[in-house]
């Protein structure tokens, strides 16, 4: 499965139906002459109007929903960086010998992974980044220079 590039501009719309009940009240106007007139309140009319509301779903989130329905969740981790104090949830999905990693923050970035032993290499990555997952599903992050733990990266398994 080839994943769509996250820079797609198209935004498919999902329509949801919203019923709005509007009540109209009207009062009759009073004349300004000296004659006293009764002010009558007309009957209240109820009108139901159907309004279509556009809900924007990004193509990335749509692809993520399809992925989760067609692939099995292999593992889930919180990846954080102690230097910049940021983190995100990372999931890996499996179908046969195919592995897809997902950063579930923002645009649901998906990356195809090539599994070699316990290492999961990110396809088309210029920095040689990969994940090493042991038998207990503990993850360590690497790039071509080695273990990224020394640069503040860590991954905590989510049960």
Automatic annotation (TrEMBL):
It comes from Bizionia argentinensis JUB59. This is Lipocalin-like domain-containing protein. Keywords: Signal. The keyword Signal applies. The lineage of its organism: Bacteria, Pseudomonadati, Bacteroidota, Flavobacteriia, Flavobacteriales. Residues 1-28 form the signal peptide. The keyword Signal applies.
